[in-house]
Amino acid sequence: MNLSLLREWLSWIQNETPSPSAEDSDNDQMVIKPFEPEKRLCERDYLIIDMLNSQGHDTVSFCVTDPHQPDNPVIYISEGFSRLTGYDFDDVVGRNCRFLQGAETSKDDVVRISEAIRKDKDCSVNLLNYKKDGTKFVNEFFLTNLKTSNKDVAYYIGIQVAVVKRGPGQMPSNPGWVYTLGNHV
Questions:
Q1: pLDDT over threshold 70, residue 25
Q2: Which range is least confidently modeled, 124-133, 158-167, 173-182?
């Protein structure tokens, strides 16, 4: 896996995504803590978690689901996810990610994501979703699994990056897809 490339892409997101200003912050809003897996992961999968949790990457949007619970619910969202979608931690945890879909979400894209989970494969999809306020947004969505040291799937992680248009050719804007460059060899 080319970790320097992943670090570089994560730094682009950090530099391109504005952090909220002091006047934008809401004192009642919960601060989301870094993701700490309850299940023991293989060492290589801790690398992506450590990078996403590292200082300066709070703008990266990602969520983690647990496929061992009924309906594969979200168990964690990042601050970046909350900023991108408008949903707070308590709005999301315990729900399947389907709540982001709407009338114009491509059924073919949804099938690609479902098939990737069923076949235990990585997936990158340019996806139309909906924010909490109903606003549409397009995101380059990358899905991969996080495995235990026994190579069993422990979690799924989805990394989302808002993009300006629907369609292919935007994968390099999403730091998640680089994860497939040898991490699960």
A1: no
A2: 173-182
Is residue 11 helix, strand or coil?
helix
Place of tokens 């061992």: 68
Contact 33, 93 (CB under 8 A): no
156 phi and psi angles, rounded to 5 deg? -115, 145
CA distance linking residue 89 with residue 86, whole number of Å: 10
Q: Which helix (H) or strand (E) holds 129?
A: strand 123-130
Which pLDDT belongs to residue 45? 86
In whole angstroms, what is the distance from residue 150 CA to residue 148 CA? 5
Q: For the stretch 170-184, what's the b/e string if a residue is b when 16 or more beta carbons lie within 10 angstroms of its beta carbon?
A: beebbbbbbbbeebb
Q: Which residues are CB-contacts of 13 (< 8 A; sequence separation ≥ 6)? A: 57, 59, 60, 161, 175
Picking from 113, 102, 107, 55, the residue whose alpha carbon sits closest to that of residue 79 is 55
Q: What is the pTM of this model?
A: 0.76
Tell me the C-alpha distance between 151 and 114, whole Å: 20
